[in-house]
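thought: fold this chain, then report.
action: predict
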Amino acid sequence: MKRRLLNLATAVSLLLCLAAAALWVRGIFTGDTLLLRFDRLEGTAWATRYWQGYVCAGRVQLCRGAEIWTDPRDVAIFSTRTQPSRFNWSTFTTNTGLGPVGFDHVELTNTTGYSHVRWQLTLPDWLLVAAAAAFPALRLRRQLRASVYGPGQCAGCGYDLRATPAQCPECGRPAGAAA
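observation:
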């Protein structure tokens, strides 16, 4: 049962590695966005909460945000992506991590009651590919190392175990232990 679960985890990790590599290559030519948005009325204010994933230019961005409008006119204004002069921004705060890699936190508020809070994690594509490839690489290394030495030999050092079948006198490993 344990071996089947490890094989399943290895297969899933390998598929994630291949998907991350494909998005990395695709991100060179175009950008992809996945947006999950939840709109609802909270008391007298209109609230939008969202989760967003974005892949482009060698980066993956995962975002979580919320927008709240207390003035109903703001919803129509922001839906057309125009910002008239009556929007006087009172607060703009950004805490940036390591430039294109890291955590970002942005808060926007204005005098009419609009507020926007956004948390963002940005990672390079190669880091996701490497992380997803680590588990399959370790499993492959273990399989290759175990298959190097034949039956009757120590899996750690290759010592001939015919005279001492219980434990390897060279490295001290029990005869049935994996590499």
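thought: worth noting. The chain has two domains: 26-124, 150-179.
final: tokens above.
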